[in-house]
Amino acid sequence: MSGEQELGITESKEHSTGEWYAEVVQKAEMADYAPMGGFIVTRPRGYAVWERIQDHLDGWFKDTGVQNAYFPLFIPESYLEREKDIVEGFDPEVAWVTHGGYDELEERLAVRPTSESIITPFIADWVRSHRDLPMRLNQWCSVVRWEATETKPFFRTKEFLWQEGHTAHADEDGAWDETMTRLEQYEKLYEDVLAMPVLKGRKPEHDKFPGAHTTTTVEALMPDGKSVQGGTSHYLGTSFAKAFDITYSDENEDEQLAHTTSWGLSWRSMGALIMTHSDDQGLVLPPALAPEQVVIVPIWQEDNKDDVVEYAADVAAELDEAGVRVHLDDRDNRNPGFKYNEWELKGVPLRIEVGPNEVDDEEITLVHRPDGENVVESRDQLVDTVEDHLDTVFAKLYASAEETLEGEIREADSREEILGTIGQHGGYVKSGWCGDEDCEEPIKEAIAAEIAMVPLDRDEEPVHDECAICGEAAEETAYWAKTY
Amino acid sequence: MSGEQELGITESKEHSTGEWYAEVVQKAEMADYAPMGGFIVTRPRGYAVWERIQDHLDGWFKDTGVQNAYFPLFIPESYLEREKDIVEGFDPEVAWVTHGGYDELEERLAVRPTSESIITPFIADWVRSHRDLPMRLNQWCSVVRWEATETKPFFRTKEFLWQEGHTAHADEDGAWDETMTRLEQYEKLYEDVLAMPVLKGRKPEHDKFPGAHTTTTVEALMPDGKSVQGGTSHYLGTSFAKAFDITYSDENEDEQLAHTTSWGLSWRSMGALIMTHSDDQGLVLPPALAPEQVVIVPIWQEDNKDDVVEYAADVAAELDEAGVRVHLDDRDNRNPGFKYNEWELKGVPLRIEVGPNEVDDEEITLVHRPDGENVVESRDQLVDTVEDHLDTVFAKLYASAEETLEGEIREADSREEILGTIGQHGGYVKSGWCGDEDCEEPIKEAIAAEIAMVPLDRDEEPVHDECAICGEAAEETAYWAKTY
């Protein structure tokens, strides 16, 4: 049993969430810390999850008219400057390349923090006529933002992987539809693939993406009561089109200004996934993302080893044939208990145990990762049975996350109640809000909570008539939360 | 017909290969020039080809035990230094990040020129026992090498996309098998997907990857008579394992040194592809890589337009249903001739023309991109017919490239003959070679040709007994060529 101690998770999700998260990420071999603070190495088990997230999203993007492209890693300083007419810019967060080989560069190059300033001029160049619209580009790449904070794999790193979509449209309707299409695809990714319910909303005016008309967001609640921005989709209006001169000739040959959008989802989604479902035994993954969906552990004595292993191998072959990602763990040098722990740590959603009884009765024992429930089923209809159980595992994960979220949306109608409720429970607190950034300040200062979002629908009646902070007429409902 | 002039290729492949190549890349919308010299923007049509190259190779890698991972974009200067015990290093070619936000960094960070120096220490950390071997990691990423040369899209750019594989094995046999497996996958990519015959060989000792025991290569001949290194696979021996301390305990618990490999293929393969098959009408792509495999152009008069377009749409729907990538070009504002030119320029392998005659006779007319051959076929068995013709297009491309290559391998047994033959014909010239780098010099100096490769098999008899340059005993056969 040596090694088992070292293998297992020692921290507690409930009592030391941050340390527990870091331990799960490392021991489940999702990621490791790079030698430079703020950077991580994404190990094969982590990257395989990211690849599956990419596959889902990329397929949906392509089905809805998006084309992938690749723009340079570096952006000349003068290009970033050009954006300053409309936005504050990323200056304090930019990593600068100053030398190529032994020579100093004439102009510094920014390692892209996001690519509006290099992609938009090309869109401007490529769009001539209304027939060129809509133009929808996306790239999967890494970006760098030099934020001086503690490294938290996938949540907070100086370099991160993401996709960034950039589109141009003939009018506001087209661009607004695009904004919502991407937001809904992000929601679908969380709900149907990551087994995580999310809230769709808008960022308050003062917290929009620089230059955006509207920033929409999907927000996910973490088990420590904090909200994570899970993906954002921006309707940029004509501000970028004006700054970068994206015009087109319409059907009457008149020159018009395009409307643009941008939208992005990063590997933070993977951090939120790990944080939401995993437990004190280690990683928990939904079946669609798990590198192995099923692990088969044969349990034998010397006198029945051949029969048991043959039966297990046969089960594995049948599942593999059907496209289930299955691993047969027939290692001689580990006992079944060790194997259970190891695969629980690594987040395999379903374990099949096969011993002499299963062989005799032509059965299999299935054990669900998230709750350890085990069920004996007939060996007949193997593939259907396994797929049903994988669906059940998904449903359990989703139901558990949904239950948590539903219990964590509360209301408050005064500053004290907001502070008290978030202080005591975490989660979201809804209140009336006048729309003024000044009314966010006292909450931010006192407990570092902020307005995570407001409802998407601008015409929705506020939850209370008055702003919980200043008492003036409420313009909308604020969802207060501590955030990542 | 306005626009047609601007649309077409004006340069000649035969007489101005470089200018012609640049024109094809831009007008077929594969890539555009970035504002900084040495950088390009890969447009959707170019990126779609790269994605298909990735899909093929990535599938083969995964089928043969490779796992994808992602390592940081930046490498601390001290890590690059560590490699200097064994290699000269990439110093003159490195882009350096010196500032994060407003602050100067304590240690400069290299934008990765290749990742041995950051990946190998992690492999050393992760490998403990013989059970951890082989360990095979790959990443798809961009790398930066600050070479001060003219920008040639996909061939010569400061930033380029590639995959880099890094593996560790228990012994030389395992690592050598790995080296050859990857080289053969590169060969298969060129021959079965890109429709390009290649030569497999080794780089001469003095031209190996720094620190490698053996550098193997696939070389492709370009129409201007120069050789392109199409992908390289290095057996690194134990030199990196020694420098980075990759050891493992074997079955007897004895500590052993691992043997490592690395191997890479870049978007230069796309450059070679474009250069090889394209012509004065524009881009030519093999069917497996083309964004659209088939374009359907309906040819109508007013009185039969509805019938023709309906027939064409029906053909398109049936092909689409069968998984053929098909585009129906039913634009009203362009005549058929314009459409032919545009899709030829963009490299669609097969055109289907549908006019009133085809409708009446229930036929289709198929036109092969590479040579304009056109064939009338029955509308029955549409999918099989189209797939046969796509296969024929592939076969034509391969045969043409193969014929070129076969005619371009000559022999020479003196310095004068090498110079004269390459000077007159380009291509490869085989000669005996003593193995001494000094004997490469006079050829390099005179005509900038070099030894592109020597045969893989170290025991193969040289083509001549004597070195064509110095007259000493020949050790092996040198394949001389001008190179990219």
UniProtKB/TrEMBL annotation, chains A, B:
InterPro entries per record: aa-tRNA-synt_IIb, aa-tRNA-synth_II, aa-tRNA-synth_II/BPL/LPL, Anticodon-bd, Anticodon-bd_dom_sf, Pro-tRNA-ligase_IIa, Pro-tRNA-ligase_IIa_arc-type, Pro-tRNA_ligase_II_C
Judging by the UniProt lineage, the source's domain of life is Archaea
* Protein's UniProt keywords contain Repeat: no
A molecular-function term among this protein's GO annotations: ATP binding
This protein is called what? Proline--tRNA ligase
| Catalyzed reactions per annotation | tRNA(Pro) + L-proline + ATP = L-prolyl-tRNA(Pro) + AMP + diphosphate
Q: Which PROSITE patterns match?
A: AA_TRNA_LIGASE_II (PS50862)
UniProt subunit comment: Homodimer.
